[in-house]
Design goal:
Blueprint lengths: L2 H8 L10 H12 L6 H22 L3 E5 L4 H12 L3 E6 L6 H13 L3 E4 L4
Parallel strand pairs: 1-2, 2-3
């Protein structure tokens, strides 16, 4: 798979639809400028982050993280890194006047990552 295909795969773009000409061109330009690291560098970075979380947990005797789950990549990645480091992770969803499918995406992420889940409706 090419780097562009990897980016589109991991961002779940194939489930959204075709790229606009502008976005496709812009993404290609960024890849040509080597803005995006290759997968080996990403894997190494992930290992370093997990190692740091393991060390932090041991140093401060902390092994539980509570993470607000938005349904997006940032919160899911953060939760996955903590899980990989052996932490107990609680994913919290806190919808306030939001579409149900957005909340469902958060809950799906918690299930997929096998997180303990807490739901607090702030509406």
């Amino acid at each position: 798979m090419s780097l562009k295909q990897d980016i589109l795969h991991y961002s779940r773009q194939e489930k959204i639809g075709a790229l606009s000409n502008w976005f496709d061109h812009s993404l290609s330009e960024l890849i040509d400028q080597e803005i995006y690291p290759d997968l080996n560098l990403l894997e190494e970075t992930g290992k370093q982050l997990v190692s740091g979380l393991i060390s932090y947990g041991k140093k401060y005797n902390i092994h539980t993280a509570v993470i607000g789950m938005s349904g997006g990549v940032d919160s899911a990645l953060t939760a996955a890194l903590f899980k990989s480091a052996g932490w107990s992770v609680v994913g919290v969803t806190m919808p306030i006047h939001q579409k149900q499918e957005e909340t469902d995406r958060c809950i799906e992420a918690c299930k997929a990552l096998r997180l303990d889940h807490m739901h607090i409706d702030l509406t």
